[in-house]
Amino acid sequence: MTIDGQPAVQAALSHGAAPLRGGEAPLRRSLASLPVPWVLTLAVTSVCALATIPLVLVSVRQVTEQFVGEWIFVTFTPGFAVAGWWLLSRRPGMWTGRLYLVAGLTTAVTGLAAGIAGVAYPDHGALVAWSMWVVSWLWLVHDSVITVVVVLFPRRVPRGRLDRLLIGIVAVSTGVSMLAAALRPGLIVTTPDNPGGAPVSTPNPVGIPGLKGIVNSIGGSYLVLGLALNVVILGLIATRWWRASGIERRQYRWVFLLSVGSSLVLPLVVVFPVWIGPFVAVTTTFAFQMLVVVAILKWDVYEAGVVLRRSALAAALLAVALGVYGAVVVVTAVAVGGFGPLPATVGAMVAVFAFGPLSLVVRRRVSRLFYGRRDDPYSVLASVGRGQAEASDADDALDRLLASICAELRLPGAAVRAADGDVLALVGDADLPAADRLELRHLGERVGTLQIAARRGTDGLTEADRPLLNSLADAIAAVVAARRAADHLQVARDRLLIAQDEERSRYQRDLHDGLGPRLTSVVFKLDAISNHLNAGRPDTARVLADDARAELRDGVDEIRTYINQLGDQVVAASGLRDALLGRIASLTSARPVDMRVTIGDLGALSAAIESAVLAVACEAVTNVLRHTAARTCCVELRRDRDLLLTISDDGGGLGSGFTPGVGVGSMRHRIERLGGRFDIASGDGGATVSCLVPVS
């Protein structure tokens, strides 16, 4: 994996950081996750909402005595539809998502019916009457949905009998009120703020005169019951907030504050100017729906730091929306020659439908302010790659990697720990709690841990952080592995130098303690021979000459052994098999022993392996001849998947007081330097040296 390589980029983008995943757009993927009925609901909702726009534009340009303003319900549609779609795509089967989609459909149909009535008025009285009749009772659905959602929050389904009772009361009261509105005699009354009838003063085509008193009582009771239910539900949410703990407690706190805020804002709508009040109501409802979904999905919207970030986002979005609204109102007013319902209506519609695209731009800017460039993984990976390219060594590369990650993602601190827990690199505030520990693996092996400090005011990383950090963890793991390899190489170099010094010291001791005294003895004997010859004692001189000859022969054999151990020219000339047989024959010439040598098909081996195996085998055989009374010595060299060397003898074993010397340490080092294993086993029958050397 490379920092700027394609696999890393694809991994960083695979969980939503990029517009594509697996060749499929997120919109198509999220729609595919919804059941067909809800996809059809979204489709019908979108058609109705879009069809309302031209109808409203035509109606506002008509010069009539009355203006049908109930089309404003369609502006609630985006909030309900987007919230329901978003929630159902991530929490399939959740009642809240389904209810939001139903509310979105009803507001879209209500707005479409009002738009039709506005275009049909006053020439087509029957069409106006039936359209306004639909508006008069259908608008009640979305209002009850908001209440039910608060009761359900944050569960998929009702949690108990109390929830079912409250939902049942809301459903029954809403159904009765819808029936009463549909059957009200006289003029059609669309909303409670128009008790004298709809703006177009249309009679109800299905009104029943005898139900007038009952209908009026139901209407008043519905308002009182709705107010009482809101108070009870707020108390229920406050109680659950008080009793809950952990994330659920934060969720309830958030939705309680949202509910209280909405309850305080909505009454103020009536005091705003006519062109401002609807816009404030729509904006407040949209924000409530979206933030409820966010809280249900358990995003980090709870602590003070996060509230600050969300507040900054909300303020920016509100400023953009008001700016668009104000600009459109002014331009429209200039075009038509004055302020009034038409500029306010056009401004509200443009602001609502432009809110989505503009919110993406604002959200991206606010996200960059608080979360860095996590939504632009290509830039982050390129920055990290440049830092690695400029690093002088592995330690510097780790420091640069962590510094780039913290800077690019606005993280307060990060650390890399080795597999044994040692801190390899540390950047930023190490005292902050660890939000996450990502395992670092390289070539299937765990090499350490990446520790990321949580942003202040949050419990941990968000889902948007993880894909990119997982890809960066691969790059960090490669650097940690390279650092570890460099450390191992340095240790191997140090061990090699130590082994060379120890081997040189051993040869020095052996020459001093073995060959040196032997040659000194020969010199003394030669002096004695000369003295005996001068004194006329040739027989004595002859005996001393024989002794000197024997010692010189032993000295020659010892020198030959040293030469065999130091040089590997024979290996290069004749191959490992012939070199090993020749060395063993040379070593056993001075002391006959039953040598049993078995050498299999070795294939092609590197010079390093041949040299090490020859040196170890000769050292082991020399130890058998020098330090044991073995009568038999077996040497086996064969190649399976790895190269296996075994030297065994019947010399009685190493004994309980055996301590490995320089020779054993040298053999072990030669084998382990090649990545192999070296073992010595001892028993009553003898000792066995086993070596395994990987050849791949």
Report the helical percentage. 55-70%
Number of strands: 9
Mean pLDDT: 76
Biggest β-sheet, characterized? 5 strands, mixed
Protein traits:
disordered N terminus; single chain; HATPase_C_sf; kinase; Beta-Lactamase; Heat Shock Protein 90; rod-shaped; Sig_transdc_His_kin_sub3_dim/P; alpha+beta; 4-stranded antiparallel β-sheet; 9 strands; Sensor_HK_TwoCompSys; 5-stranded mixed β-sheet; 696 residues
Please tell me about this protein's structure:
This is Putative Integral membrane sensor signal transduction histidine kinase. Residues 503-567 form the Signal transduction histidine kinase subgroup 3 dimerisation and phosphoacceptor domain. Residues 1-27 and 299-305 have low confidence and may be disordered. Among the domains are: 28-179 and 220-273; 377-494, Beta-Lactamase; 584-696, 2-Layer Sandwich (Heat Shock Protein 90), CATH 3.30.565. The chain has helices at residues 6-13, 26-32, 36-61, 77-90, 95-120, 125-138, 140-152, 161-183, 212-243, 246-268, 277-296, 304-336, 341-371, 377-389, 394-409, 466-534, 538-566, 569-587, 607-627, 662-673, and strands at residues 413-418, 423-428, 434-442, 445-453, 594-599, 632-639, 643-649, 677-682, 687-693. The chain has a five-stranded mixed beta sheet. α12 (304-336) runs antiparallel to α13 and α14 runs antiparallel to α15. It is α+β, with helices and mostly antiparallel strands. The two termini are 23 Å apart. β8 and β9 (687-693) form a beta hairpin. It is 65% helix and 9% strand.
